[in-house]
């Protein structure tokens, strides 16, 4: 990889970075002695960057407006188009926290999402191992059935799932929130794709040395797959954390509500207090912001390879 | 977990891999049973169950009555069914078209000479992973009668409509919010597709004196067509499941202007206490999504280019 005048600072995956044409940067002169053509190229690059930055700012504006609305007094949320109200009310955040049991919603959200992600990953890894490394009857047919359900709208399943949960007495429980959606074919499909990229010789060596199959899965395969594993875990987590329709159906008591359900409880009952609602929304998007900030490279690789998922 | 370890240990005596024609059925079962059990219990059984339930009058609490295909007969005579079908199809096609056009445009732009491409890509990706309920609430604030959008329009001397409660604009508003929410996802998939196009081909073409438009039309788009097909299919499938946006933004209104398939399904099942009818709707949704997906796959031969 040669370093180039443009593009090295860009944060994206290397494959999509744009390089200066090789012909224009033969000797890499210092900044002061750029030839006119090069200077023009640098200028164009920065103008282009500024333009897309502006588009990105407009795109992000709903979030910015959300945050500033959260700091306004309630009667100034509507009307004058100004970022700041007559005062900056940080206490909106604490008020939002106490008006409804928002801490409880966050706690529920994290608990459900963590356990759900864990279950999804364990199930997906075990299934993907079987589909990619073992031979058995109907393997390809079963896998085809899995793939087929990737296009099945999950909404088709909610009525029977609700009846099932109701019959089992599990309505209004963490189990009902977590278990039914941990078995989607997506995780198995994604992990199988990654398993197939690892040559089987690695495991054969371990197996001949007397390691058990489970041991080779754990100590040979998985250490090479930490990136896709974390992507799958994060996507499952986000899927659970943001899910709305199923919790809306299966949860009745505020004690078990997750974040989106809790947010929707804000509106309605005693009229909507928009500044508090925006404070709560700001809090609810924070975990996602943190996850993206920490894991953006891997997330993007996961989307690019898996393509779908997320929800 | 323990049982799996044991099975693994028992395998120690057997041949390592590819042992004979019989296959490794029992070992496979040891790894497969958690996933397969869950798959059968929570996907296959409910899918079949949904079809069975649709043949009953099934209240939330109380005993179901078998009524044959009466739910389907009722459905085809239900004007709201046609309205939600129409709304959902309009939503799906307009949303998918706008989503792909924007995603392709931004992905191509990010592929030109600019800095921090990865950072901008992440920015566009953000709303796709923040809670959709929160995103929709933000837009409800922005688009309300005296919200920011209308204040800005007012400043420019234009009186904005009530975006969410005027039947002329409600569906368009729901579409706009939905595109904003999710096109960044496709930006990433298409960026990856663009990154996979060998630079040498574009460079050679450039030396032959082609215009940027020619390169886009005859090199980039054909080589990107598998990624475009993939994003189109998945975006369309997702579009037919639209629920949160109309539920939070407009409650399906005004009238039925933004009522969608899944919103109507939810209301029938869990508000109007008609689980059987909701299941009939669910199966119609399933059939429509299957049909549209099959049509897309049938059509791909005409424009998707798989040879490298």
From TrEMBL, chain A:
Q: What is this protein called?
A: Multiple sugar transport system permease protein
Q: Does the keyword Membrane apply?
A: yes
**Keyword set, alphabetical order:** Cell membrane, Membrane, Sugar transport, Transmembrane, Transmembrane helix, Transport
The annotated topology with respect to the bilayer is:
Multi-pass membrane protein
Query: Which Pfam families does UniProt cross-reference here?
Result: BPD_transp_1 (PF00528)
Give the record's GO biological process terms. transmembrane transport
Query: Which family is it part of?
Result: Belongs to the binding-protein-dependent transport system permease family.
Task: Say which domain of life the source belongs to.
Answer: Bacteria
From the record, give the transmembrane residue ranges. 41-68, 105-131, 143-165, 171-191, 220-241, 274-295
Q: One Gene Ontology cellular component annotation?
A: plasma membrane
Classification via InterPro entries:
MetI-like (IPR000515), MetI-like_sf (IPR035906)
Keyword Nucleotide-binding assigned = no
Q: Where is this region: Disordered?
A: 1-33
Q: Which Gene3D superfamilies match?
A: MetI-like
**Subcellular localization(s) per the UniProt record:** Cell membrane
Identify the main location: membrane
- Which residues belong to any copy of the ABC transmembrane type-1 domain? 106-295
From TrEMBL, chain B:
What residues form the membrane-spanning segments? 31-56, 84-110, 122-142, 169-198, 219-244, 275-298
What GO biological process, any one, is recorded here? transmembrane transport
Q: Where in the cell is it found?
A: Cell membrane
Q: Which InterPro entries match?
A: ABC_transporter_permease, MetI-like, MetI-like_sf
Q: Which residues form the ABC transmembrane type-1 domain?
A: 85-296
Which Gene Ontology cellular component annotation is one that this UniProt entry carries? plasma membrane
PROSITE patterns per the record?
Answer: ABC_TM1
Q: Tell me which domain of life the UniProt entry assigns to the organism this sequence originates from.
A: Bacteria
- Keywords per UniProt: Cell membrane, Membrane, Sugar transport, Transmembrane, Transmembrane helix, Transport
* Gene3D superfamilies tied to this protein: MetI-like
Query: What topology does the record note for this protein and the membrane?
Result: Multi-pass membrane protein
The record's section on Pfam families has: BPD_transp_1 (PF00528)
Family statement: Belongs to the binding-protein-dependent transport system permease family.
Q: What is this protein called?
A: Multiple sugar transport system permease protein
Q: Which organism is it from?
A: Diaminobutyricimonas aerilata
Q: Organism classification, top ranks?
A: Bacteria, Bacillati, Actinomycetota, Actinomycetes, Micrococcales
């Amino acid at each position: 990889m040669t370093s180039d005048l443009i593009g090295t600072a860009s944060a994206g995956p290397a494959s999509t970075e744009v390089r200066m044409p090789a012909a224009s940067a033969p000797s890499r002169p210092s900044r002061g002695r750029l030839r006119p053509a090069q200077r023009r190229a640098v200028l164009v690059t920065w103008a282009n960057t500024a333009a897309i930055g502006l588009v990105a700012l407009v795109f992000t504006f709903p979030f910015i407006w959300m945050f500033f609305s959260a700091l306004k007094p309630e009667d100034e949320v509507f009307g004058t188009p100004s970022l700041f109200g007559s005062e900056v009310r940080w206490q909106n955040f604490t008020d939002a926290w106490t008006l409804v049991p928002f801490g409880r919603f966050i706690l529920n959200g994290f608990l459900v999402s963590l356990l759900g992600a864990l279950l999804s990953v364990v199930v997906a890894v075990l299934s993907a191992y079987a589909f990619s490394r073992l031979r058995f009857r109907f393997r390809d047919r079963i896998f085809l059935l899995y793939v087929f359900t990737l296009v099945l709208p999950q909404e088709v399943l909610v009525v029977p799932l609700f009846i099932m949960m109701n019959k089992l007495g599990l309505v209004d429980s963490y189990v009902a929130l977590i278990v039914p959606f941990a078995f989607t074919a997506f995780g198995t499909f994604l992990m199988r794709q990654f398993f197939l990229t690892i040559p089987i010789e690695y495991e054969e060596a371990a197996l001949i040395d007397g390691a058990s199959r489970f041991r080779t899965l754990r100590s040979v395969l998985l250490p090479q797959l930490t990136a896709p594993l974390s992507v799958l875990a994060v996507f499952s987590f986000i899927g659970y954390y943001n899910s709305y329709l199923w919790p809306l159906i299966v949860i009745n008591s505020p004690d078990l509500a997750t974040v989106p359900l809790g947010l929707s409880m804000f509106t309605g009952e005693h009229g909507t207090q928009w500044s508090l609602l925006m404070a709560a929304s700001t809090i609810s998007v924070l975990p996602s912001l943190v996850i993206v900030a920490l894991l953006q490279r891997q997330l993007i690789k996961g989307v690019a390879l898996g393509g779908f998922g997320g929800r | 977990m323990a049982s799996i370890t044991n099975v693994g240990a028992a395998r120690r005596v057997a041949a390592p891999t590819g042992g004979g024609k019989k296959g490794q059925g029992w070992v496979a079962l040891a790894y497969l049973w958690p996933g397969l059990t869950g798959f059968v219990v929570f996907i296959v059984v409910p899918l079949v169950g949904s079809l069975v339930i649709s043949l009953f009058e099934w209240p939330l609490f109380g005993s179901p009555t078998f009524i044959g295909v009466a739910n389907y007969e009722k459905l085809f005579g239900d004007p709201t069914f046609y309205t939600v079908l129409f709304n959902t199809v309009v939503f799906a096609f307009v949303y998918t078209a706008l989503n792909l056009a924007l995603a392709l445009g931004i992905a191509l732009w990010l592929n030109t000479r600019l800095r921090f491409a990865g950072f901008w890509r992440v920015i566009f990706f953000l709303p796709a992973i923040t809670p959709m309920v929160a995103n929709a609430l933000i837009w409800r604030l922005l688009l309300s009668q005296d919200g920011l959008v209308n204040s800005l329009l007012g400043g420019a001397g234009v009186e904005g409509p009530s975006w969410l409660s005027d039947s002329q604009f409600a569906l368009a508003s729901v579409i706009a919010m939905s595109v904003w929410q999710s096109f960044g996802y496709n930006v990433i998939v298409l960026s990856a597709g663009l990154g996979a196009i060998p630079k040498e081909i574009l460079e050679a073409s450039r030396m032959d004196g082609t215009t940027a438009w020619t390169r886009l039309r005859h090199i980039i788009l054909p080589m990107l067509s598998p990624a475009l097909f993939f994003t189109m299919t998945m975006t369309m499938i997702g579009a037919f499941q639209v629920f949160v946006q109309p539920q939070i933004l407009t409650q399906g209104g005004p009238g039925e202007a933004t009522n969608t398939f899944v919103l109507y399904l939810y209301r029938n099942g869990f508000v109007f206490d008609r689980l059987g009818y909701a299941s009939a709707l669910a199966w119609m949704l399933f059939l429509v999504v299957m049909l549209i997906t099959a049509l897309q796959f049938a059509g791909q031969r005409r424009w998707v280019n798989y040879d490298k």
